[in-house]
Structures are given as structure tokens and as C-alpha cells.
Write a structure and sequence with these properties.
Oligomer: single chain
Strand order of the largest sheet: 10-11-12
Structural class: alpha+beta
Helix content: 25-40%
Largest sheet: 3 strands, antiparallel
Number of domains: 1
Length: 495
């Protein structure tokens, strides 16, 4: 392995100086032979988990796979999408051949074409039986009634995969494209909020509203904008950070920023300060909220004064939290299985707006930096490393940083593999408690899909981005990203 890179600090300094970052900040770095071999091995194991969790008759993956080979009954539209784009990566990396790719995805499309969709919107429901594609109305294994709903973000990830198949597998392009085209994302748009619904419950007409921050949920917004089903002004609907006001002093930290107007929409361009960096947060401070979308959309290329600045700083914040603030010795915090059982949202609290925060550990260590100038805004003493006990690291979070910190990623993953035995014939188990060494007993389709996508782009010259982005999509979305300037971009500077 190469010595640790200084890529991110160099990028940050270049931005502060008003210079264009080096090409390595936005293009996949050319891996060394040893790095490529390590990533290829990880891809082969990860793909093996998809083979193990996918029903051969339906072509649908289970939501999760146990270390003993037990599959869950349920699957989601996100899981199906994860499998589909992972199959494209597996073929590109030589793990499967073209005939197997087409055969596998043809089976999946056969099932998708027969699955129940919402007639008005063409959207899929949230949970299905992975063995036959039937909509679930009872939650396995509890037998409790299940409210069937349409999820904007989960449908977004299925649509992403359909568009990838359309662009990368000509043999199946018409079939995948027909389903993609039938899915109306304008259905979720709430004009009076300039936001999209979280979900829609057909049985009651309930429309839980709305996604108002820039997390992984933005994939549904970007698709709706790219298809022309949502008006351009929606791009500026979600909060970048909540405003600097005592009315909003419940948020995690006091933001730095100012109000600007784009397309007639008032936008508070705010950022949180963490370890000398100004970072635009997401809701929980997790890696997948920040960096799952750019697996498919070249945000840092199109948003040179926004995403291009923020993504590497977010990665640096995650690394410094794990290695320096909490001193776990490892890093990578994102929603994952709790190693001892269950599921939890992990993150770096400083990088999220949620006042409760997504902790990076099972013991829920959440700093309180206070909110200067507001009643009750006095800070608490910040926790020291000794208070960050039972830290939980998930490998998929590290893979998401591969574009911006490849050497740190590969070192972190190698250390996790060496110290905890977290890597197996089915790839990485979902998480590890780095204090106790307890490793999760499951592989999750979504998290395995993020790993495959990150490796595929890194070794395959952005193959998933190339398959997903069409000229029409770029023409509609790129100008919106290009006009914005985040609060962490030094005013008056132009790269």
C-alpha cells in the first residue's frame, strides 16, 4: 500500500486560495496494481453475497443475508436496485460474463414487470417478498400488519438502477427504460413546500411531508428534475443548513452563512464549523447521506462552488472524527446493523443538523457545542476520546470515500480486515464494534450495493455515472448546480 495521501488537505488549500483543485479531486485516481488487486478481491466477495442472497427464480435479492446463509423474506426497491447495478459492475470487472449478466437482469426485469405498482404514479411499493415479487402486507417474521406505502427515495434508487441498465446493457435497454419512464417522480412534488413527499400511503391518501435536507433522499429530486417532472426551482427547496436564528437554535450547531436567492427561491447558504473546516451538513452526519448520490451523479463536476468543495471536506470530517476526535483507530460512520443486534443510524454529529445527532458509537456520545447568543444556548464541555466508547464502524461508509481519499480508505479497510476478521467469502459483514470486536452477523443488500458501486467507478472509469447520466439529464440538472455557491466556498473566488 502506498503512503498516506495528502489529497484532501491539498484540495482544501487550493479552494481557499481560489485555485482549481487538481484533477485527482474530481476524477477517480488511477489505482496502483496492489490497490486494484485489493479492490478486485473485495468486489468478488461482495458480489458473492449478492449471488447468495438472490432468488434464482425471481431474480430479486433479499434485504439481508446472515453469516449462516439465511435470507430475509422481505426486499425493497432499493435492494433490487442495488443488485441490478452491482451485476453491471460484476460484469465490467470480469467476475461474471455478459451472458450471465443479461440472464440475471432479464430474470429481475421479468419479475419487476409483473410486480404491483401504484396505478396513478407508476411507483413501486416499499416492501415485497423477494421469492416471488408479491407486495407484502404482513411483516415477516412477526406477522404484524404492514402499511403499504410508496417511498420517494427507495423508488429513486430503483429508478437509478433501471437507468444504469438502460445505459449499460443494450440487450435490456428497452425493457429497463420502459419501467423507468413509467415512474412519475413529479407525483411526490409538493408545490407549496417546494419539496418532495417522504412517502405516500395509497390506502389512506396520507402524504408524509417532506424531505427538507440534502441527504441521500436527493436522488429522487435529481431524477424528477432530470426527467422534467419537477420544476427547476425545487433544486433550491431543501435546507443547506437551517438558518442562523434563535428560532432554530435547537439544531445541532450554530451555522455560518448568509441568505441568497436562486430562481426566486430564498436559500440560507449555511455551513457548520468542525475542526477548522466549514462543512454543509446533512440531517444525521452520515456518510451515505452525503456520498451515495455521487456514485451516479457527478455533483462535484457540475457544482464547482458547492459539491466540489463540500464532498472532500465531509470525508475529511469523518476521518478526523474517527482517528483524532474519538480516537477509535478506524473511521466510517453511517446507518448500519448494530453489531450486537438490531439496526441504528450512525454518523458524526458535527456533520448533521439533527439536534439529537447520529452518534458514532453505541453509547450515544453527542457533543453539545451550544448556540451562542440564544437563551439556553450555553455549550457543555466537549467529550474527550475516553467518552467515545463502543464505537461502531461500517465498511460501506469507507468505500463511499474512495473517490476523495483512496489511500486512507484502503488502509482503513485493510486494518478492519486484519483486526476484526470482518471480511469473509461474502465480502464485508455490515459493521463492527471497534472496542469489543463484536462483528455484525448480517450482510445488507443496500450496503453491499454501495460497496460494489464505489469499486466499479474506481476501477471502471466511472462506469455507473456514464451509464446513468444522459445528455438530457445533464442539461436539466447541471445548470442548477453550477449557479449555487455553498457557504464553505470563499466568497468572491472562482475555481
Amino acid at each position: 500500500m502506498r503512503a498516506k495521501t495528502t489529497l484532501i488537505p491539498i484540495v482544501a488549500l487550493a479552494l481557499v486560495a481560489g485555485l482549481a483543485p487538481p484533477a485527482t479531486a474530481r476524477d477517480p485516481l488511477e489505482p496502483t496494481a496492489a490497490d486494484a488487486e485489493q479492490l478486485q478481491r473485495y468486489a468478488e466477495g461482495t458480489w458473492a453475497s449478492f449471488v447468495a442472497m438472490t432468488d434464482t427464480d425471481s431474480g430479486l435479492p433479499a434485504d439481508r443475508l446472515s453469516i449462516e446463509g439465511e435470507r430475509s423474506v422481505q426486499t425493497s426497491t432499493t435492494n433490487i436496485g442495488s443488485y441490478m447495478w452491482s451485476a453491471v459492475v460484476a460484469e465490467a470487472l470480469g467476475i461474471i460474463d455478459r451472458d450471465e449478466l443479461v440472464s440475471r437482469l432479464s430474470t429481475t426485469l421479468d419479475t419487476l414487470e409483473g410486480m404491483e405498482q401504484h396505478a396513478e404514479s407508476g411507483q413501486f411499493f416499499n416492501w415485497y417478498d423477494h421469492r416471488n415479487g408479491e407486495k407484502l402486507t404482513i411483516w415477516p417474521p412477526s406477522g404484524a400488519p404492514l402499511v403499504t406505502r410508496l417511498s420517494s427515495v427507495d423508488n429513486g434508487w430503483l429508478a437509478t438502477a433501471l437507468q444504469v441498465v438502460r445505459g449499460a446493457v443494450p440487450e435490456l435497454a428497452d425493457r429497463a427504460g420502459a419501467i423507468y419512464d413509467s415512474m412519475d417522480f413529479g407525483f411526490y412534488y409538493v408545490p407549496e413546500q417546494n419539496l418532495i413527499m417522504r412517502s405516500f400511503v395509497p390506502d389512506t391518501g396520507a402524504t408524509p411531508c417532506c424531505y427538507n435536507t440534502l441527504g441521500e433522499v436527493r436522488i429522487a429530486s435529481w431524477i424528477g428534475l432530470g426527467k422534467g417532472e419537477i420544476p427547476p426551482r425545487h433544486y433550491f427547496g431543501p435546507w443547506r443548513s437551517f438558518p442562523d436564528s434563535c428560532d432554530w437554535s435547537w439544531q445541532f450547531s450554530k451555522p455560518l452563512g448568509e441568505w441568497r436567492k436562486y430562481l426566486g427561491v430564498d436559500v440560507f447558504e449555511g455551513a457548520y464549523e468542525y475542526r477548522g473546516m466549514r462543512i454543509v451538513p446533512n440531517w444525521g452526519g452520515s456518510m451515505f447521506e452525503a456520498l451515495m448520490v455521487p456514485l451516479f451523479v457527478p455533483e462535484e463536476d457540475w457544482g464547482r462552488r458547492s459539491w466540489r468543495v463540500n464532498h472532500p471536506l465531509f470525508v475529511r470530517g469523518q476521518i478526523e472524527h474517527g482517528l483524532e476526535e474519538a480516537q477509535y483507530g478506524y473511521w466510517g460512520f453511517s446507518p448500519a446493523d448494530v453489531p450486537e443486534g438490531g439496526y441504528r443510524a450512525y454518523g458524526v454529529p458535527w456533520l448533521g443538523m439533527d439536534a439529537g445527532g447520529y452518534p458514532s458509537n453505541n453509547d450515544g456520545t453527542i457533543p453539545n457545542p451550544g448556540y451562542e447568543g440564544c437563551p439556553g444556548g450555553e455549550p457543555d464541555p466537549l467529550p474527550g476520546p475516553e467518552e467515545y466508547t463502543n464505537g461502531v464502524v461500517t465498511p460501506h461508509a469507507s468505500f463511499l470515500a474512495l473517490r476523495w481519499a483512496p489511500d486512507e480508505v484502503l488502509e482503513n479497510l485493510a486494518n478492519l480486515e486484519r483486526d476484526f476478521g470482518i471480511y469473509t467469502e461474502w465480502g464485508f459483514r455490515d459493521s463492527v464494534n471497534v472496542d469489543t470486536g463484536t462483528v455484525a452477523e448480517w450482510y445488507l443488500a443496500l450496503d453491499q450495493g454501495m460497496i460494489m458501486a464505489a469499486i466499479g467507478n474506481h476501477l471502471g472509469d466511472d462506469l455507473l455515472r456514464d451509464a446513468f447520466v444522459t445528455p438530457q439529464f445533464e442539461d436539466r440538472l447541471r445548470p442548477l448546480m453550477a449557479m449555487e455557491e455553498f457557504a464553505n466556498f470563499e466568497p468572491g473566488r472562482r475555481p
